[in-house]
Amino acid sequence: MKRPKVLIAVVALVVVAGVAWLLWPAGDAKATTQQAVSGPYTVQFSADPPRIGGNTFAVAVTGPAPDSVSVEPVMAQMGHAFAPVLAVPDGSGRFRATGVGLPMSGQWEITVSLHGPGGPAQVVFPLLVK
User: What sequence ranges are listed for the domain YtkA-like (predicted)?
Assistant: First the structure.
């Protein structure tokens, strides 16, 4: 009579352990910061650990102060391209784009576009979503 109860308990424990393993946050997820130069601008791009869904990206610009900054996510391998998201000023030379949707894992390219007195410029940053 005790064997079915033990078997049920073991199966339940295995199921709970499997669900916990699948839902446990990835320990290797790290924020990413990259830098590039385009024309008179030096652009630093930062992202909290990128994830499926809405993301927040920070852009810091040195050089002529741009009038506008936008970020545009593209996943070339899958043919996905989404409308640019306007980044709002977040201090001197700093901008923040929130709610940038990345609907699937894989290799993304984030195009940062700048418009200002130094002329238009674009920088593309690779971003891996796990």
Answer: 37-112
Q: What is the pTM of this model?
A: 0.77
Phi, psi dihedrals of residue 2, rounded to the nearest 5° = -75, -25
**Containing structural domain, residue 66:** 32-129
Q: In whole angstroms, what is the distance from residue 70 CA to residue 106 CA?
A: 22
The answer to whether the CB of 100 falls within 8 A of the CB of 73 is yes
Per-residue pLDDT tens digits for 46-56: 999 999 999 99
CA-to-CA separations, 49 to 13, 33, 86, 130, in angstroms, rounded: 31, 10, 20, 9
Interval 43-96: pLDDT, tens:
999 999 999 999 999 999 999 999 999 999 999 999 999 999 999 999 999 999
Cα dihedral 90, 41, 53, 129, rounded to 10, equals: -140
Is 101 domain-assigned? yes
